[in-house]
Specification:
about 525 residues; alpha+beta; eight-stranded antiparallel beta sheet; globular
Length: about 525
C-alpha cells in the first residue's frame, strides 16, 4: 500500500490483510523487512488517534434564512426558550462552510411530514412527531433546505454537526416499541422519575428490555417546557424508544392536589386500553390507587390501569382501537404502593451499562432535568411514603410472584421467546398455549378468566397452576439479552471495544515481529 490511510477505515479488515499478506510473503522475503513492516504497523495502530478512538462530530456554525423573513438567528442561538412559528410551506435554508452530516431539531410543535433537501436528495421526516429529532443527512452538503408541511410548526433550535460520531447528549430516539415487555403509565412529567424511576434504568438501560412509556398528561401548549424536560429525563435514565407524550390536559389548581372528579374517567380508560392494545405489553405498571399524594388524575389513571385487563381483551369495548390494533391481555399488572402482594424493588445495585451507577442514582439525576419542579418538596427515594421501589401485583394470569423484586418474574420477554419471528398472540391464543405447556391440564379449572391475585388466592394459584416452564423464571435474569433489543448499532458497539481490539492486535503483531527478528539469530540445521 502506498499509504497507511487505508488502515484508518477498519482495523479488523486491516489486520486480516496484514496477517494474510505477511503469511504469504514470509517464505519469500527477508526477515528484516517483515520485522520492520510489522513493527511500524503495530506502532501506528497503537498510537493513531484516527483508529484508536472515534472522532466526535464538530458542532457547525451556520447561516439560517427563513423564506418568510423572520430572523433565522433565533434557531441557532443556544436558547431553547426562543422559537419561531413557521407557517405552511415555509422553507428554512441552512448554509455552513463545511458539509452538514446531521442536524438536531428542537420542536415546540413538531411538523409531521417536513422535508429535507440536500443535494438532489429530498427526504420526508417527522412521522413520529418527535420534539427532539436527530436527522442524519443522507447526502452531506454545505447547504440544506427544510420545508414545513401544511399544518405548520414551531421550531426552537437547530444544531448542526459535521462528519464523525455525534455527542452522547444528542437524543437519537428510536420509534415507539412495536411490542413492549413493560408498559409504564406516568401521569405528568416528573412521574417517570418519582414513581417509575428505577424501572427505566434497570429494565431498559441495563437489561435492554423493551420498555414503553405512555404519559397521561400532555403539557402542551401551556407548559411546553415540561415536554422537553421529560424527554431529557427519560434519555438520561436510559430509555431509547420514544414515549407517547400524553393526551389529557392537566387541570391546574392552587396546590398539587386536583380532585379526581375533574377528569373524565371513561376517556382515560379508553386511552389506557388503546395503548395496551397498541403495544401488547407483557407487564403494565400504573400509579397508586390513592394517587400517591392524592392527585385526582393519578387516581383516575390508576383506576383505569387496574381495570385494563378486563377491557383490553373485550371485543365489544372501544371497537375503534380493537379494529386498529386487535385485542390484548397483559400477563401482569402492578400498581405503585399497592399493599397486597407487595414487592420492594432493589434499585441500589450498581449497573454495568451506567459505569457503576445505581438505578436510584439515575432516577434522581433524571428528576433534576425537570427544572420546573425543583421548587417542590418532591424527591426521588426508595424509602418513605411515596418511594419509587414499592409496588404490588394487582392482577396476574401467570400466577403470583414467589421470588419477588422482579416485574418480569414468570414472564418470558419478547426478545427471548423461541420463535422471535412470530407475531404476538391474542389473549385467547396465549392461554391456550399456556395450557398446552402444562403437563397435567386436568389440574387447571379455568384459565380463561383473569385471576385477581390477593392474599387469599395466592396459595391456591400456586398449587393449581404448576410452574411448567422453568425457563420462564430464568428469563428475567440479567444474563440474557436479545440483539434485537439493543439500542446501540453495531458500529457504536464496535467503537466501545475498539481500543481493546487494537491493544490485543498490537500485542499479537509485536509477538510475530519479535519472533521474526529473533529468527535471524537462530542457526537452522540444514
Amino acid at each position: 500500500m502506498s499509504s497507511l490511510n487505508f488502515f484508518k477505515t477498519n482495523i479488523v479488515d486491516s489486520s486480516k490483510i496484514i496477517f494474510t499478506f505477511f503469511a504469504s510473503q514470509y517464505s519469500k522475503c527477508s526477515h528484516i523487512p517483515v520485522f520492520i513492516g510489522l513493527f511500524v504497523i503495530s506502532i501506528y495502530c497503537l498510537f493513531s488517534p484516527d483508529t484508536a478512538y472515534a472522532q466526535t462530530a464538530p458542532d457547525l456554525k451556520a447561516t439560517i434564512q427563513v423564506s418568510t423573513g423572520e430572523d433565522g438567528h433565533i434557531l441557532n442561538d443556544i436558547d431553547y426558550a426562543s422559537k419561531l412559528e413557521l407557517r405552511a410551506n415555509t422553507t428554512v435554508t441552512i448554509q455552513s462552510s463545511s458539509p452538514i452530516y446531521g442536524l438536531y431539531l428542537f420542536w415546540n410543535k413538531p411538523a409531521n411530514g417536513w422535508t429535507l433537501k440536500s443535494g438532489e436528495k429530498v427526504t420526508t421526516y417527522g412521522q413520529y412527531e418527535m420534539l427532539h429529532e436527530y436527522v442524519k443527512v443522507e447526502q452531506p452538503s454545505p447547504t440544506i433546505t427544510m420545508t414545513i408541511p401544511t399544518d405548520g410548526a414551531i421550531l426552537c433550535e437547530i444544531q448542526l454537526f459535521g462528519e464523525g460520531d455525534i455527542p452522547s447528549n444528542v437524543q437519537t430516539w428510536l420509534p415507539p416499541c412495536e411490542t413492549a415487555d413493560i408498559l409504564l403509565f406516568p401521569t405528568h412529567a416528573g412521574d417517570e422519575s418519582l414513581v417509575f424511576g428505577g424501572t427505566i434504568p434497570y429494565y431498559a438501560g441495563e437489561l435492554g428490555r423493551k420498555v414503553q412509556v405512555s404519559y397521561i398528561v400532555r403539557h402542551y401548549p401551556d407548559e411546553v417546557y415540561r415536554e422537553h424536560e421529560k424527554l431529557d429525563a427519560l434519555w438520561a435514565m436510559g430509555l431509547r424508544n420514544y414515549p407517547v407524550m400524553g393526551k389529557f390536559e392537566d387541570k391546574l389548581t392552587s396546590g398539587h392536589v386536583t380532585p379526581s372528579s375533574r377528569y373524565d374517567y371513561d376517556a382515560v380508560l379508553e386511552y389506557v386500553v388503546t395503548q395496551i392494545r397498541r403495544f401488547k405489553p407483557l407487564v403494565v405498571l400504573g400509579h397508586d390507587l390513592q394517587g400517591e399524594y392524592g392527585h385526582g388524575l393519578h387516581i383516575v389513571s390508576a383506576e383505569a390501569v387496574s381495570q385494563s385487563m378486563k377491557f383490553a381483551p373485550d371485543k365489544t369495548y372501544h371497537i375503534a382501537s380493537a379494529d386498529q390494533y386487535g385485542l390484548w391481555e397483559q400477563s401482569k399488572t402492578y400498581l405503585h404502593l399497592y399493599k397486597t402482594n407487595s414487592i420492594h424493588m432493589n434499585w441500589t445495585t450498581k449497573l454495568s451499562k451506567f459505569n457503576g451507577k445505581t438505578a436510584l442514582e439515575l432516577a434522581k439525576a433524571g428528576f433534576k432535568y425537570n427544572d420546573s419542579q425543583q421548587w417542590t418538596n418532591f424527591e426521588v427515594s426508595d424509602t418513605g411514603s411515596y418511594n419509587c421501589a414499592d409496588f404490588g401485583l394487582y392482577l396476574s394470569s401467570v400466577g403470583p410472584d414467589k421470588k419477588g423484586a422482579d416485574f418480569l418474574e414468570n414472564i418470558i420477554p419478547y426478545g427471548e421467546k423461541k420463535n422471535t419471528s412470530d407475531k404476538p398472540t391474542t389473549s385467547t391464543e396465549k392461554l391456550n398455549a399456556d395450557i398446552s405447556d402444562v403437563e397435567d391440564t386436568s389440574s387447571i379449572s379455568d384459565l380463561s378468566d383473569i385471576t385477581a391475585v390477593s392474599n387469599s388466592t395466592a396459595s391456591s394459584l400456586a398449587e393449581s397452576v404448576p410452574n411448567s416452564n422453568p425457563a420462564a423464571e430464568s428469563a428475567s435474569n440479567e444474563s440474557s439479552n436479545s440483539a434485537s433489543n439493543q439500542s446501540k448499532s453495531f458500529e457504536q458497539s464496535y467503537i466501545d471495544i475498539e481500543p481493546l481490539v487494537l491493544k490485543v492486535g498490537f500485542i499479537g503483531m509485536m509477538i510475530v515481529a519479535s519472533a521474526s527478528f529473533l529468527s535471524l539469530f537462530i542457526k537452522k540445521d540444514n
